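Quick start: what a row looks like.
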Amino acid sequence: MGRIASKVVNALIVTWYFASASLMAQEMRVTGTPTGEPEVYIAEEGDTLWDICDRFFDDPFYWPILWSFNPHITNPNWIYPGDIVYLVPPKPKPVVREGYEVTESRYAPPPGVQQVMARRVGFVAKDRIEEAGELKYAREEREALGELDEVYIDFKTAKRIRIGDMFMVVRPEGKVKHPTTKKTLGYKVKYLGVVKVVNTDAQRNKGIILRSYEEIFRGDKLLSFAPVSRVLTPVKNTAAVVGTIVGDAFDQELIGEWQYVIIDKGSKHGVAPGNRFVVRRRGDPARSLREKELTKFPLESYGEIIVVDVSETTSVGLVTYSLNEIRAGDTCELLIGY
């Protein structure tokens, strides 16, 4: 009897050991990524999901999505100091569809996506760059800066800065111009690292470089922090908008599925994250036809783009469906109710 009890106790100890190890492994997975990007926020007194979304995503209306990442928060208006708030959710499980689907046309688009995991890409709208902060000075005697170096930051426009605020360090690398008007819409940027504010007592705020992906220099720009990735679900369009695809976010001439595109319409035109643009054309793709002849054809769908990021005048979208290659200069549309 004593031997049996001893075996039971040993089995319970082994089970507890492996269960504890599993929980530790899970915790390690959700609190970091291979790039070391901060993805967990520890709540402070007075915090709400609205405030946290405004602080980290520059979009307070993102709070319902952030809440969905944190089922342990039972009331979004009541968050307690020390609560863990996950800024990025686990990867969505792929949707498995069984059987066959019969459509009227073999060109009919597939069922629309239910959810996408979108990531940050190297484009920033002109208005955001103009309002960006600047890594003006540093305590270090060298030019090249890296992790744990202390820096001083300035903002051209009035901005409320608090201890603990985080900013992305970026470097503009070239203008993005409209293919027709040639007007500058934004800039291609390189993401360099993350700075956290540690002191706001003086007129010039002090920060520390938390992450450095490559060398950082005085003069580099600061944008509101946003996680590398975010989950989006489609949102019904409330405005009819006709836009132009400016180009691919990575300078690709031919654009296909799961590539990011820049569109010349933004929030002031009625565009919001989760809206879906459709790319429609008329005519015969193997024939060059006059405009008068093209009007005789119906509009056919050739692609779909879900909006993942919006500024006042531009947006970035992810191509979720394309029948043919999409090119800079193509027209895309938001259809009301779609």
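That is the whole record. Residues 1-37 have pLDDT under 50 and may be disordered. The first helix runs from residue 2 to 30.
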